[in-house]
Amino acid sequence: MADPKVADVQPAALEEPAPAETAVPAVKVHYKPMSLPSAPFWLILIAAVVFVSIIAATWSVVFMFAVGMGLFAVLLPIVNWMTRRGMPRGLASLIVVAVMVVSAILVGVFALAVYFNQFLPFLASIPERLIEIQAVAPEWLANTIQGILDAIHNAAAGADSTTVFFGFLKGILGLVGTLLALTMLPFFVFYLLIDQPRMSRSIKQDIPVPWRPYVRAAVDIFIRDFANYFKAEVIVGAIQGTMVTIGVFIIGLIVGPPLAGYALLLGAIAAVMELLPQIGPIIALIPALLLALATSPLAVVLVGIFYLIVFIIEANVLVPKIEGQVISFSPATVIFLVAVGLALGGIVGGILALPVAAIIRDFFGFVFRQVERDSLVEEPAAA
Questions:
Q1: Which residue in 219, 225, 217, 220 sits closest to 373, CA to CA?
Q2: Cα–Cα nearest to 244, from 277, 278, 275, 287
Q3: Burial 48-79 (b: 16+ CB within 10 A, else e)
Q4: What angle do the packed helices 212-255 and 263-273 form, to 10 degrees?
């Protein structure tokens, strides 16, 4: 029998050698010289400049179709959801557009009813209300109201009937043109909703294969930044509308009707007007002041102070913090961009300032990262 002590001993030749460490070659990183942009780049750049120039020159016409594109972006997920549930795309588009048209008609009828039944009689009673306030107001306020009444009287007495007639006619023609443009809007949205899959496939097929990742990235940046801006506006508008509704209702309980009964309507107006930077809150203030003027001098003072506080909170807290956080801009940058947009393009410039700045920032960031990646060269370093 073999000795167990000898059997446990393994010969040295059978032991596996330890793996040797593989040497990692050193890598030298540098940037290759940049080449000049290609001919397609210059072609796209020229086409973009021409496109923007045409849009700027025909903005009054294009604006209506821009509204249609916005409605299309809002309604498209609904149509896609209905299509995935088995409904034909044409029928789904027709139902969605029909609901949109009926809702717009109902809102228009309600606005006209309020205008003729309440707003016009109220405008006729403004001089009488001003005289009542003048009788109990301090001397400086009474003198100011008297100056306003004198200016209104002088303007009405010196108005030229021909000028008034042609101005009224011009307003009617402009209203008719706007209504005709609005009648085309539902059809425009309807055709976009139906043709969206076909247009998407056609665009993808027409784009050269090497360009497709870049075009897809640009479209994603455009949609994401505008969606973030819209989300921020909805949040700020909801907060603004809630504050106005609660504040006007409390003021209405103090001063009496009819102010409290319009608290929800004034809150909705404040929420919608939030889409118009700077000028929107002022527009929302006008109906509140008119209703307060129809109530009492105390209502005018309370409404004026309350809306002033709301303006300060909206302009210096809500917009810089919420919109800046959603779009990734600092509060100071938000204030600066909105001011620049208002100076360059008025109300439209103020509306588009933040989303356009976000798109430019993200687009150039993508381009710079792409250029840096394509220019980076790694090669083994010399031994």
A1: 217
A2: 287
A3: eeeeeeeeeeeeeeeeebeebeebbeebbeeb
A4: 150
Strands of the chain, DSSP E: 27-31, 376-380
Angle between helices 89-114 and 59-84 (to 10 degrees): 130
The answer to whether the CB of 288 falls within 8 A of the CB of 302 is no
d(CA 382, CA 95): 70
How far apart CA 361 and CA 349 sit, in angstroms, is 17
Three-class secondary structure of residue 276 per DSSP: coil
Lowest mean pLDDT among 8-12, 330-334, 346-350: 8-12
Q: What is the pLDDT of residues 195-204, one digit of tens each?
A: 888 887 877 7
Residues 6+ apart with CB under 8 A from 101: 186
148 vs 127: CA distance, rounded Å: 10
Q: How many residues does the chain have?
A: 383
Q: How far apart are CA 224 and CA 231, in angstroms?
A: 10
